[in-house]
């Protein structure tokens, strides 16, 4: 067999089969490449679509929670007792020391309902916060945590000095503090009233 001899001619049937196989291989390769390219090209819409689905699911879950929060906020809106409206010249700035005690809290309620601006000073030694918590947040109410043994500098029109641990167990617990609060606290309030 000589190398320079021409190859034997293939039958037309074999040639057709080879061409079909080549064409199929090229077609498969192109299809695979197209799928890969198509998948890469379609990744963004698929990702965006997935994100939209997740967001819509989250919204479905979160919306009832938002409604519950709104309902809770509405139910916790502070409702104050009816307060008279006073003009600026009639409205007084009033200081109530010991305003969280039994007598002070009732006086403070009356003054607030009459429309005055009330500042309560208490050191929480005997008073209870629940005696006045219904006024917290009202525009005419202010609470100051202060010991009456210290000077207080505030500008007011009236002073009601009720700061004193006024129960026998308090006297017995700390008798010197009681005496100091009654004397020095009163002197401080007289100095403020000057």
UniProtKB/TrEMBL annotation:
Q: Where is the NAD(P)-binding domain?
A: 95-193
Q: Which InterPro entries match?
A: NAD(P)-bd_dom, NAD(P)-bd_dom_sf, UXS-like, UXS1_N
Report the cofactors: NAD(+)
What does it catalyze?
UDP-alpha-D-glucuronate + H(+) = UDP-alpha-D-xylose + CO2
Top-rank taxon of the source lineage equals Eukaryota
Keywords carried by this UniProt record: Decarboxylase, Glycoprotein, Golgi apparatus, Lyase, Membrane, NAD, Signal-anchor, Transmembrane, Transmembrane helix
User: What is the membrane topology noted in the UniProt record heading this document?
Assistant: Single-pass type II membrane protein
| UniProt GO molecular function | NAD+ binding; UDP-glucuronate decarboxylase activity
Q: Which GO terms describe its biological process?
A: D-xylose metabolic process; UDP-D-xylose biosynthetic process
In which compartments does the protein localize?
A: Golgi apparatus, Golgi stack membrane
EC number(s): the record gives 4.1.1.35
Q: What is its main location?
A: Golgi
One GO CC term, this protein = Golgi cisterna membrane
Tell me where in this chain the UDP-glucuronate decarboxylase N-terminal domain is found: 38-80
Listed pathway(s): Nucleotide-sugar biosynthesis; UDP-alpha-D-xylose biosynthesis; UDP-alpha-D-xylose from UDP-alpha-D-glucuronate: step 1/1
Q: Which Gene3D superfamilies match?
A: NAD(P)-binding Rossmann-like Domain
Work out whether the entry's keyword set contains Transmembrane helix.
yes
Q: Which family does it belong to?
A: Belongs to the NAD(P)-dependent epimerase/dehydratase family. UDP-glucuronic acid decarboxylase subfamily.
Q: What is this protein called?
A: UDP-glucuronic acid decarboxylase 1
Give the source species: Bos mutus
